[in-house]
Design a protein that fits this description.
Elements: H1 45-48, H2 61-64, H3 69-75, E1 82-85, H4 92-102, E2 106-111, H5 117-134, E3 138-143, H6 150-154, H7 157-161, E4 166-171, H8 175-178, H9 181-185, E5 188-191, H10 197-209, E6 218-220, H11 222-232, H12 236-247, E7 254-256, H13 258-265, H14 277-291, H15 295-307, H16 312-327, H17 333-347, H18 353-366, H19 372-385, H20 447-461
Parallel strand pairs: 1-4, 1-5, 2-3, 3-4, 6-7
Helix pairs in contact: 10-11, 10-12, 11-12, 11-13, 12-13, 14-15, 15-18, 16-17, 16-18, 17-18
């Protein structure tokens, strides 16, 4: 069905490790819908609803179409090695599990959290013997492969290069930083994306209706469904876990509403519409709180957006804009902090990236404020739009091509580096805007020193330095 590979549950709860397994009954045989777990207890809803074929997978359409590497691996048993990269809950383990169910190969699952080189080498030796004796190939799935150090990843190279195994590695971290180059170069890199709202709705509706799911034992009203999708944050496994918890609260055939869902998962339903008034009102209050240096209010609105499932990339983009619009040269490092937070959102993702976003919010809130940058560029744009865009002065025109000197291009240009301080009296702007002052630095923070520097530079450019 979908992508709920990792949601932070204890190891073994959803993905019990097995040294090697093959799809029961041969390739393509699905498991029974409600298998009992340890002690006879029914398996969790997220496990029961796990996809049994690629056709049941929801989302990741860019990876599952005809002719894609995953299809080749499953449908044609083509030997290949893959690295699956995506945030938690996007389906890395799910896709590997589907391969284990429908392929005729041996399937071996290793966790980089708990297994080491000894286990890796032992499984590779078994795979070589199996391949030599029976011709049967092995799929070696390494979950959290980024947790292996360089030496541990090196141990995989001979098996991958010689195709003793078809390697599938899953990572939540950027593989260009966390997976060694030799292993990455021998594998196809597939990037998984978080599930969209429509994908999550399909997952939820299937779980409510199908026999292996809740089989109609509970309903879900629209408001609760929207809240569940926000809580899931693109992770279907989390959505199913919360749905199951809520279904235990209502009577058989009852309807789960927002109040029931809140009590079941202990998470308040934040009233927030990502495409409505709340979206615009909250982001407006967020930016104005930062501009007003109220760090506590800004953090409140940040928490409100995160809890409501707002796109973290949207928040990061607004911080980048604010860093130049309302802080600017009063603290030039504010932009660096905002950009770094945006990169952290891409590399780490939520929930961890909330810390990086909070750091940027605190930095921007407490930084000295200046709107001189946006005032300067908008002033220049305003003049250009009024038609004040005269001819470029002749001494500044391009003089590198043949014949330019004959028409006066570059004549009289003064090379700034040949003059004291690297500044020389010279007109740079067109006549129509010569003398206009767009950038007017404030006395706030680091920008105060630019006030003095700019005054000296302008006096040299205009020939008034000797008179000051």
């Amino acid at each position: 069905m979908t992508s709920w590979a990792e949601s932070g549950e204890p190891e073994g709860l959803f993905d019990a490790p097995a040294p090697a397994r093959t799809a029961p009954g041969g390739a393509g045989s699905p498991p029974s819908p409600a298998v009992s777990g340890a002690g006879g207890a029914e398996q969790p809803l997220a496990v029961r609803m796990r996809p049994r074929s690629l056709d049941e997978v929801v989302g990741q359409g860019h990876l599952l179409g005809p002719g894609t590497p995953i299809r080749q691996l499953v449908d044609r048993d083509v030997p290949m090695s893959l690295v699956l990269w995506g945030p938690p809950g996007t389906g890395k383990t799910t896709l590997a599990t589907v391969v284990s169910l429908v392929t005729s190969r041996r399937f071996v699952e290793i966790s980089a959290v708990s297994d080491g080189v000894k286990r890796v080498r032992a499984e590779i030796d078994l795979a070589r013997r199996e391949l030599g004796m029976t011709g049967r190939q092995t799929v070696l799935f390494v979950d959290e492969v980024h947790r292996f150090n360089k030496a541990q990843q090196d141990a995989l190279l001979p098996a991958v290069e010689n195709r003793w195994v078809s390697f599938i590695g899953a990572t939540t971290e950027n593989p260009f930083f966390s997976v060694i180059s030799p292993l990455l170069s021998r594998s196809l890199l597939l990037t998984l994306e978080p599930l969209g709202d429509d994908d999550l709705r399909e997952v939820i509706h299937r779980a409510l209706a199908e026999e292996r799911g809740l089989d109609g034992a509970a309903g879900l009203d629209p408001a609760a469904e929207d809240h569940l999708i926000r809580l899931a944050g693109g992770d279907a496994r989390r959505a199913l876990t919360y749905l199951e918890a809520a279904s235990l609260v209502v009577d058989d055939g009852g309807v789960i509403d927002a109040d029931v869902l809140e009590k079941a998962v202990d998470r308040a339903a934040v009233r927030y519409d990502r495409e409505g008034d709340q979206h615009y009102d909250v982001i407006s209050a967020f930016i104005k709180s930062i501009r007003g240096s109220d760090v506590d209010a800004a953090l409140h609105y940040l928490a409100r957006m995160i809890e409501a499932g707002e796109d973290a990339r949207f928040i990061a983009r607004r911080l980048i804009v604010h860093a130049s619009e309302d802080v600017g040269m009063a603290d030039p490092t504010a932009l660096q902090t905002a950009v770094a937070a945006a990169q952290a959102v891409e590399f780490v993702g939520l929930p961890e990236a909330r810390i990086n976003l909070a750091q940027a919010v605190i930095h921007l809130s407490l930084a000295p404020k200046s709107n001189a940058v946006i005032t300067a560029v908008d002033g220049a744009l305003g003049d250009v739009r009024k038609g004040l865009a005269g001819a470029v002065p002749g001494h500044l025109r391009d003089a590198h091509y043949k014949g330019a000197a004959k028409i006066g291009h570059g004549e009289g240009y003064k090379y700034a580096h040949n003059h004291p301080g690297g500044v020389v009296r010279q007109q740079y702007a067109p006549d129509s805007v010569d003398g206009r002052e767009y950038y007017r630095p404030t006395r706030h923070g680091a920008e105060s020193r630019f006030t003095e520097v700019l005054a000296r530079i302008r006096s040299v450019l205009r020939g008034t330095a000797d008179r000051r």
